[in-house]
Structure formats: structure tokens, C-alpha cells
Design brief:
The protein is mainly beta. About 5% of the residues lie in helices and about 40% in strands. The longest helix is centred in the middle third of the chain and has 9 residues, at about 370-375.
Length: about 675
Amino acid sequence: MATLSGQKIADRYQFLLKTAEAALSTSLTNVEDGAGNASDLHLATNKVKVGTALGINQSSPTYKLDINGTTSALRVDNGTNASLLLGKGSIYGFCAGDCNPATTVGGGSAGSTTAQANKNYLAVDPTFDSNKGRVTIMNGASAGSGAIGIGQDSTATGFIHFGDADKKFYFEGRNTTSSLNIFANSETLLSVDGANKRIGLGENVTDPYCTVEIRETGTAKANTDILAITNKTNAADMDGTRGAILFNQYYYDASTPAIADSGRISVGTETDWTSTGSTQDSYMTLETALDGTVSEKVRVTSAGYVGINSINPTNHLHVNGNIYASGTITSGKYESPTQLTRYFLEEYFDRKPQLNATSIIDPDADNATTLAAFVKANRHFEILGTGAADANVTYDSDTATTKFSTAGSGSSDSMIILPHLDHLTAQYAGAQTAWTGVFWGTENQTIWECCIISDSVITDSMYYAGLKLTNTHLYATDNDQAYFFYDSSKTILNNAGAPGSWHFVYSVGGTDYVTNLNLAVHTSTIYHLKIEIDGDRKIKAYINGEQYGLTQISGVGDTGVNVNGTVALSSGQSSVITVDGTDATTQIVVGDILTNSSGVIWGTVTAVSSATSITITAAATKSFPDNEDIYIYGRAAVSRTTESSALGTVNLIPYIGIVKHTNTTERHIRVAYQKISREISTS
């Protein structure tokens, strides 16, 4: 604009700026030239308005405020430092406060005038670059409950939210030893070594020496828990519940190498855990891969027993298989055939047991045939039973066993293998064999075992083997005993609910305890049976090297517990049953198979919640009337390692037998060997 100096007002007044017909006040008035042409500027004493566009360093503004800067387009200065900087040009969009920006920044829409629902809102939307790197910050409904969203425009209050459902959180650290540190409580609690690809956890692990290092200052001569692995699974039936560390290994493939399991360390529950400390027993296993399958090789039990190729070790070291030692093995006191404090007998039946009449000869006999039979007969064992005959004992060369066969004519034919009992009669002055001449007392820590093979047909037979007072297979006969049995036709346990499995019975002064071992008996199968009686006269029972727990609840059949109300069961479903009569917690344990008096199976117990409440999984869809008696034939044990109640002090005799229930044909039991031992005593 040219100077007004020396100019006539009449010639230049139209170029002067003035307000439109009013003096300045608190109300906006238009600024116009002397000719009355209005500008886009409005003034008041307390405000300024530009009607269309204001350009700063911009000759052709296209926005309400159009700033063109070479470094910072806008600077808000608090006196020392810039409070707010916005980028240049149109690369960055910006919104602050209650705003609804163009496009969809923070959930807004183009042209919308509705304020955002979240107050104190900040959003950056680089629309120039396809919305990549979106950032939102909002306070939410109340002060202090803000949120930060990166790649997320609907961030929940109080969260820092990276990406959405199909996005990743990606942190690009520096390629240095200190790529990322998280500091708290005067310590670096997490560090990332970007240069060496390592992570440190714990107290000032700023230089982790391996992929992951954890450090914590513990207490000298005391345990310090540094890493915890917790399995939160819990249930009424939870024995064998495990938490583990799994190891993997990549295998080589020229085009597609892939991962495979290589091993596992796990810790599991031995029993059903409750809040009671006595139930909280655990074991640890080591598993390795063989032919691509990871399986258990070593187990450490709650008792401190170590099993190698045994899931149920019975001694401090229990090895199933050969042991090789390149050096000397020095032993203290342990059970073995060379233990000096025990007396051992073994019988492999190198001579066939015969009838007693064949095995015992009158000293005055002069019959050559009788004498010849006596010479060939076994000096330690004999046979007896309904229909038993010498000809029914043969060697089975294929299986390396002695085959004992029943007769085929009767439905109750039997074959029993037992040591000579002649010293028990007045006719003979002394025992013929140490198998009965030595007393196998329950107080002598007696151990008995045998190896048998089941027949090719077992559906009409029963087996029994163990320590008894008499040769009968019926447990009700002997007041004291300990033996295994399998009974296909429920003759031992009348109307038994699980006839197809091994059971174990022991008796103490006429009180009987019968356990269903829940191990199915199969045809033509080898079974190693073992009974150990410890110094407290308590029994441990084993089949094929694995311990099976024994019940400590006496009584067989009627439990004294009755149904309270009609019960309707659905097959495979879990049902809570209200009961009365005898306290259920004293008669029933988890794993028991319940039946009625007719042997109809109800199901398996999964919980005993109280004296009047039990839970079962039904075996079939059935209904039972109010006050129906609950029966158990062969109880379950509390755990696999539960010992028996203490036996009385009594001498027992080993027996092995087979009984046939039909008259169709003969049945067989093959016996490889029988062994027994006891502590040597001074009296």
C-alpha cells in the first residue's frame, strides 16, 4: 500500500479500513474498506473472526486455518518448551478435545458434527498413508481412566490396546545389549539383550548369559523358589493329574523341517487331592522319545522310591530290566537272593507235583511201580482237587511252564498246587519239605510270589493264588489269609459287580477285606503275582511289578448304606445320590463299583461328599427304589499305594488253584515258578 503522506483524503479514503457502521464492542463487526466493501475479517473488543479461510505463510489458504511452515507448522510455547507441534502440509490430521474429525479417526465419520462419546479425546489419523500407525488417547467416562490405542480406534477404558483381533504387537528394539528394560522397586525386573537375543528376569539381570536367565537373591542354607509352574485343574477324581515341561526338537527335512516332541518332565498327583494334607501326595516323571513317541522312563514317588521302567516302584530303587555296572556296587541292607538275613525257597517244578498218594510212600512198601512213581514225584509239592490226577500235570515246553489241567467231566473240577502237608497229620512225624516245615509267619516279613499264564478260555473258570490256611478258594472258610483271585462266575463273590478283573482278599481274625484291583484278566497272558508283608504285618500287593492298593474297609456285600429316595440313573451321566443308614464316608470310597443285592451294577463312585451324599457315574440307565440297599463286591482302594490293615500273627501256606464252573471241557493254569522268603529269626 502506498503512503498517505501528501494525499488528499477524497482521493484515498476508499482504501482505508473501517468497521461497518459501528464502533468496536464485544459484538463482532465486519471490517470493510472506505467504499463499503466487506472483508472476511470480523473484529470485536474480545474476539477476532475470519469467515472463510486464514492463511499463515500461505497465499492461497484452502482450510479455515492454513499454516505453511518449513519445520513446525504450529508451535504452542509454554515459555521454554513447545507444548504442541503439528507436522507440515496435509500429511498429518489432528484432533483434540470433543471432536469428530473427517474420515474415521476415533470412530468419527466425515461431515459429522456430533461430539465424541469419550471426552478429552486425542486422535492422529495419517490418512495420507492409509491409516497406518493410528493413535488414539481418551479419558473415558471418569477422570484418570484414559486409554491408548495404537492401530485400534475403540480402545477400552483404562487399557493400552495394540492392534485389533488380526493384528500383532510388534516391538522393534535396538540391536544393542540393552534393547528394553522394565524398572521397578529399584531393580531392573526385565531386560532384553537385542544384540545377543537374550532375556533377563528378576533382580537386575541386565546381562543374561543365555536365552532366558532368572535371578533372585535367596537365603543361604535354605530353599528359594525361583520359578513356579501351576496346574489350576481340580476335580473330585484327579489322581494322575500332571503339570509338565515339554521339550521339542526340530527334525531335518531338506524342504520343510518341522518340530517333534523329544521329552517331558512332569509332576502329578498320586491321589485325589483335597484340602487335607494327607491326600496331597505327588510323583515326578522323566519321559523320553522312543520311535517318535514320548513315554515315561523314570518315576520318583511320594515315598522317595525311584522306578526305572516302572511306574510303581516298590523300593528305593526299582529297576525293570537288566542292570549294568562297570564299577563296584556296594550294598547295605536290601532285598535280594543274596541277602544274609532272609531265608529263600524257589520252586520251578523240575519234578512234576503229583497226588499225595504218589508222592508219599509207606516205608515198608515193596511195590516197584509205587516206588518208581515216588522217585519221580516232586518232593516239595503235591496236587489235589476234584477230579485231579497225576496225568493232568504236564510240561509245556513252548511256554517254559508246568501245565496243570482240571478234569473235563464235572462242573466243579479243580486243580490245586500246594506244598506237602503230611506233617499236619498224626500219621507222619515230620514235614517232608521246608515249604511247610518252615513257618511263613505274618510277623516274619514273609514275601511270596509266583508267575502264571492264564488259559485260552477263562469265561468259565476261576484262579486263586497266595497265602491261606486251607486249600479252599472260598474266602469265608479261613479266618486269616492273603491271596489274589479271578472269578468269572462270581462264586467267590456272589453277584459280584466286576467278575472280569483281578481281586485281592485278606482276612484278619475272620474279618474280610476284598479289593477290586480293577485290572482285567485276559486270555493267554503272563501274570506275576507278589505279596509282601512288612514289619507291621501290612500287605503290599503287586501284579507284573506294579503295586495295587488294598482296601482298609471291611465287609463284603451290603454296606449298610441305603438310598434315600428313588434314584433314576442315565447311562454315562454323573448323578448325586442322597443316602442314609451307615455313614457313607466309612463304607464307600472313590472308585467303588456299586450294585444292588442282585448284582445289578449302578456305576462307579466319583465322589463321597458327606455321610449322606455320594456321586456316581452310571453304568446304564436304571431306576432304584427308595431304601434300596447299596452293595459293593470288591471295594476300591484309596490309592495305588495303600497297604492293608495289619494282619494277625499267624502262619500261612502258599496255594495256587484253578476251579472250572462248567462240564464242557478241561481248563488249564500254567505255572512257571513259585518263590517264598522270610526274615531269619533267633527264636
